[in-house]
Each structure stands twice: as structure tokens, then as C-alpha cells.
């Protein structure tokens, strides 16, 4: 496990100490949890951005599905005749 030194603003340090005390955990544990969650969130956002760019490129190439087809598919959810997800025709 690595060691990193961080300078915290006084109010952040106070909140950190309060959280650690309330959870009966060390400040290091709280910081590690917070950073792990932050890193996971950043990775998810990066993946979503990548998927958004890919979708925009796909749409620019004309690979789209008509809105009425999508609405029909969504309306079929939970029914006996639930449809498969529509695919672009190109």
C-alpha cells in the first residue's frame, strides 16, 4: 500500500475527523473510501463519454432507428408480446 501526503483545508479536516469519528474508522480509511468512489465515478463518466462519442459518430454515418420503432419497442415492455431491441437498418 502506498503512502500519499495531502494538505487539507481546515474545514475539510474538521469534517473528515467528524466523519471518521462517527463511523469509528480512521481518517485514512475514510479518505481511501472517498477516493475509491471518486475514481469509480470518473471511470464511469469516461466510459459514458466514450459511448456518447461513438453514438454520435454512428448517427452521423446514418446508423439510426426511427423514433416510432423505439416507442413501439418501449411500449411492448412487460407485455406478452415484448419486442427485441430495434437495430439500425444500416
UniProtKB/TrEMBL annotation:
Q: Which InterPro entries match?
A: Arc_rbn_hlx_hlx (IPR013321), Non-func_TypeII_TA_Antitoxin (IPR052991), Ribbon_hlx_hlx (IPR010985)
Name the residues that span the membrane.
none
> Could you state one GO biological process linked to this protein?
regulation of DNA-templated transcription
Where does the source fall among the domains of life? Bacteria
- Gene3D superfamilies attached to this UniProt entry: Met repressor-like
The cross-references to PANTHER family, in alphabetical order and at most eight, read: PTHR40688, RIBBON-HELIX-HELIX PROTEIN COPG DOMAIN-CONTAINING PROTEIN
Q: Specify the protein name.
A: Predicted transcriptional regulator
Amino acid at each position: 500500500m502506498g503512502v500519499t501526503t495531502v494538505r487539507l483545508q481546515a474545514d475539510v479536516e474538521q469534517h473528515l475527523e467528524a466523519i471518521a469519528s462517527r463511523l469509528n474508522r480512521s481518517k485514512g480509511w475514510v479518505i481511501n473510501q472517498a477516493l475509491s468512489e471518486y475514481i469509480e465515478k470518473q471511470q464511469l463518466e469516461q466510459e459514458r463519454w466514450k459511448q456518447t462519442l461513438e453514438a454520435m459518430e454512428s448517427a452521423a454515418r446514418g446508423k439510426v432507428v426511427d423514433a416510432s420503432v423505439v416507442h413501439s419497442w418501449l411500449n411492448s415492455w412487460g407485455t406478452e408480446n415484448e419486442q427485441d431491441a430495434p437495430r439500425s437498418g444500416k
